[in-house]
Amino acid sequence: MAGHFGRPGAVRKGRKGAKVGSGGQRRAALEGKGPTPKAEDRTYHPAYRRKKEAQARARAAEPKLRGVLRIAPGHELIVGRNPVSEAVACGIPYLRVFAAAALANDERVSAVLRAAMEKGVPCVEVTRTELDLMSGNAAHQGVALEVPPYGYADIGDLIDAAHGGSRPGLIVALDGVTDPHNLGAVARSAAAFGADGILLPVRRSASVSAAAWKVSAGALARIPVARETNLVRALQTLQKEGYFAVGLAGEADTALADLQLAGMPLVLVIGSEGSGLSRLVRETCDVLVSIPISSRTESLNAAVAAGIALYQTDLMRK
To answer: What's the pLDDT tens digit per position in 238-284?
Structure first.
């Protein structure tokens, strides 16, 4: 009878892929090997040992930061001759001054060192390489200031600051502005045009950092910054205190220059350049206004918009 007489259902396998015999053994030996590793990656090879020794020498040659130069968690460095001298002149609290010996004759650095010694603040001599390591290769110009975490005000402090002035209150609120350079620039404009303070939300916002200090050119030492958990609730609190919330929105029909609110306490609410004001903040504002611009650009940078709005508000009040 034709057919296979072995185990029912059995199928005879062909020779393809056979493991028996020299051909199959050679084929199995070559499976899954892949490319030959480099000599320096083979642990048994002398080249591997030479590579490890070279790596160890490179690590040993890297500059090490002395323990005395380590910055405590939460503390920051203000770097650069102008930012450091302005921060000290404005009276911000600082814990240590780091300066390269070659700058002892620089007038600004000398003034900083004298002020520090009068206050009993330690002055530490460092090399430029050490400052590179400490500052993450920032443009430190050979001098840095260690500052503790910024002491934020609260919304009540901003209201109290306005009560002590001769003009109606003026506060700048930032919604979703995450770039510390923008925060520093807004602080500079706010100080220049008589604002009582800056209001920030805790989330989705830049904080007062060394980068913001540097851009503010000392303004952050002269104007309080409050930080509140909920920006909408903070704006509502200000509205209950008599403030009029003015939100900047590029599509608004009313131009800022046409607003007749010179005698009222104001909160200027500035959104991010990309997404503008968030929905709830927009709905909380009493009015939305725009800054007319050329059709050649879509929007203004948040710090630029804040500067123009503060200038226009200052003009209305004179």
So the answer is: 999 999 999 998 888 888 888 887 788 999 999 987 788 999 999 99
Which residues pair with residue 288 across a beta bridge? Answer: 247
User: pLDDT (tens digit, 9 = 90+) per residue, 200-239?
Assistant: 999 889 999 888 888 887 788 889 999 999 999 999 999 9
The token duo for 102 is: 């070659």
- The pTM (predicted TM-score) of the whole model is 0.71
Q: Which residue has the tokens 């920051």?
A: 76
Q: Please state, as a whole number, how many other Cβ atoms lie within 10 Å of the Cβ of residue 132.
A: 14
Dihedral sign computed on CA atoms, order 214, 217, 222, 225: negative
Q: Would you call 317 exposed, middle or buried from its count of C-beta atoms within 10 A (0-12, 13-18, 19+)? A: middle
Which H or E run contains 238? helix 231-240
DSSP strand pairing (76-79 vs 143-147):
antiparallel
Helix axes 81-89, 107-119, angle to 10 degrees: 40
